[in-house]
Amino acid sequence: MGVSGSGKSTMGVTLADRLGLPFIDGDDLHPAANVEKMSHGIPLTDDDRWPWLRSVGQWLSEHPCGGVVACSALKRSYRDSIREHCPDAVFVHCVGTEELLRQRLTARDHRFMPASLLPSQLKILEEPGADERAQAFGVDKKPMLLVEEMCEWLASLEAR
Fold this sequence. Notes:
Blueprint: H1 8-19, E1 23-25, H2 32-39, H3 46-61, E2 68-70, H4 76-85, E3 91-95, H5 98-107, H6 118-124, E4 134-138, H7 143-159
Parallel strand pairs: 1-2, 3-4
Helix pairs in contact: 1-7, 3-4
């Protein structure tokens, strides 16, 4: 989870490969109307996001042995919506400075998420609470080191 440019997709693909789990980019689950809005620089509303979040939760529930989704899940209510379909969901929060995120967004070619939407995402971001199964990871590290840290954290959850 995390705002655009935080490395969710890159980390998600690498983490899924490392764990031998299926991966999907949450962007691929957005309804066409959401993609259209974002491609025009229009931030999504909660009402826009609910069908998408249901799709994310449903995808996870269809993979009972586990799966990795790159999904912003910016608010607790969004994460709760995903948990309605997949109660055991855990969230790896990819965190970076606004400067780093903006640099990444301007350097990449994304099909519908312009850098101009970053401030709206940062504004609504709710850090996961201590009672959520979530952990923040700074994305200023090398991807393989970051994935190793994520795997260690996930293993610690299984050991509990």
